[in-house]
Amino acid sequence: MSTDHDATAPAESPVRVLLPQVLPALVVGVGSALLFLGVSKLAEELQSVLWETLPDALDIGPYSSLWVIAVLTTTGVAVGLVIWKAPGHAGPDPASEGLGGPPMAPGAVPGLLIASMLALAGGVSLGPEQPTIASAIALAAWLGLRAAPGVPGAFWVSLAIAGTFGALFGTPVAAALVLSEALVGRPGQGSLWDRLFAPLVAAGAGAMTTQLLSDPSFAMGLPPLTDPGWEDLLAALVVAALGALFGLLGCWAFPHLHRAFGRLRHPMVMLPVGGLVLGLLGALGGQLTLFKGLHETKELVASIGEYSSGELAKLAVVKLAALLVAAACGFRGGRVFPAVFIGAAFGLVAQALVPEIHPAVAVSSAVLGVLLATTRQGWVSLFIAAVIASSPAMLSLLCLATLPAWLIVTGRPQLELDHQGRALR
Length: 425
What we know:
About 70% of the residues lie in helices and about 0% in strands. The protein has 16 helices and no strands.
């Protein structure tokens, strides 16, 4: 099978090159979605046991401070044991891993998925995206190189990333944006759309699989803004910039926190201590600051007007601290979903302080700023903010709000470290 990644292949008609890519792209896309849905379903079942069945049987409040601390500390012990004993130690340190990257050894995939599932169920403030993408990449590259040894590994990596993004967001658009950004300046034959063809097939297959088997949605139920004015633009510019600054506070603190946990050395010390700290933060912040944050964001947005600015600020600060601790001590998980909650809470702080700001402007602009700071994925940040706003009229405001926020975050420390523990810029 020929691909446009093969620089040594003789010149062929683009159609003859692209058509053979359709079947493997479909297989990888569907497989990536099933992997994501399977892990999510198992995590939900375990979460129900930990936070509903067991507390009911013990006649304990499911989100009492004692139970929150106990469950998160126990989760730290369980995940630490997996990382210590599982083949491949459940993959590399997540603090130095972004969304994508070279394939890890396939033997590390079971440990990574188990560690991720335990963290999701136990209330750790991390999402499923990074472990799922890393696992999909490892499996797609391992199986693909055996089925078609002549096809470069980068081809399978791109399919796995696209398929998983399609599954995560229920649409291939996010995958197209991520890969377009990644392909800028990267050598390769054919036009951009030729190079995106197979990944988009995988993303579409992943998205359709999720839509058929689940109900993915980032819509938060915000009141739509149909006719934005100059005051809305000003608010979006200011809130997005402030959200970016708030996100950068976490980025600056992250390497110091990672080094502090690194001094504990052993996963059976790092993870239980991290779980205990997360339990204390959860007891302080309450139920809304637990878990990956997507469902909790919807709950928070649905209660606009019920929380004071001080209460909302506490939620944002606690969730940011929980994200930093979880990522620094070695729990396996991604940063995107918790960052959405942090941005939503920060935006509602602005809306509570200045009620004239439309809720859709406040929430989506703050989410945009926090995501830009924590992920440095411009297109994905804009995409998620636009989906949350649920208003086509907001898109122009968010595009403009991206610009000052990007000036604030570009060249600054990221929420990702190199292998020496230094913050990437």
